[in-house]
Amino acid sequence: MTDTSSRPNSKVARVIEAYELDGLGAELERRWIGENGDRTSLRDLADVFNRRVLAAAMREAGYSAVESDVESAYAALTDEESGSADRMRKRRDLEQAGVDVDAVLGDFVTHQAVHTYLTSYRDAELPDRSDGRIDRKVETLERLQGRTAAVTESTVESLVEAGELTDHDYELLVDVRAICPDCGSDYPVGDLLRSGGCDCGDS
Fold first, then answer.
1. CA within 20 to 30 Å of 90's CA: 68, 113, 147, 148, which one?
2. Per-residue b or e along 80-97, where b marks 16 or more CB atoms closer than 10 Å to that residue's CB
């Protein structure tokens, strides 16, 4: 990340400072670019941010801020499917505890605000994941084949135990193959992907 001292302020940055949420900006960036694995969507990051803001306000007021209480309060205040009675009851509980609910809701941010903060304020960029793309796709297919094999084996075993399938030492094979319609060559799909396709047109 580049130096942010000369960057224009943003709502996300202002709220982080106001609620003393040190480290949250860096966490949002790490999760967005997928530094530790899977990436987190901007909408989910906005929810993460808003929950942290609510939790900080609840702690400041001396209200219970354990994860379950924060989740319950956040859902009641933001979930459109939540009944108005539930929303008003939770709002009243928070206000009686000293939480300025209107101020907290005003400090919530949208996924667009998170995107602007990450790209314009922190100069974050999504990594170019074109390298290794085929290997990742093959690994995904191989995991799916593994799960299919495991489910099939479990199904056969359960039917044998129930007496609905004759008991033999079945050998189960899960093999996804691709056949070239032009030359008839038969490939394991992983080999086809890694080789860049059938080479029959090169001869």
1. 113
2. eeeeeeebeebbeebeee
Say which residues have a Cβ less than 8 Å from residue 16's Cβ, sequence separation at least 6: 22, 24, 25
> pLDDT value at position 94?
93
Measured over the CA atoms of residue 76, residue 80, residue 83 and residue 87, the dihedral's sign is: positive
Residue 31 phi, psi (nearest 5): -75, -30
The three-state DSSP-derived secondary structure of 30-64 is HHHHCCCCCCCCHHHHHHHHHHHHHHHHHHHCCCC
CA 133 to CA 81: how far, in whole Å? 39
* Range list of H helices, 97-186: 101-107, 111-116, 133-161
pLDDT in tens, 41-87: 999 999 999 999 999 999 999 988 888 899 999 999 987 766 678 88
Q: Residue 195 is encoded by which pair of tokens?
A: 């080789």
C-alpha 196/C-alpha 160 separation (Å) is 42
CB 174 within 8 A of CB 190: no
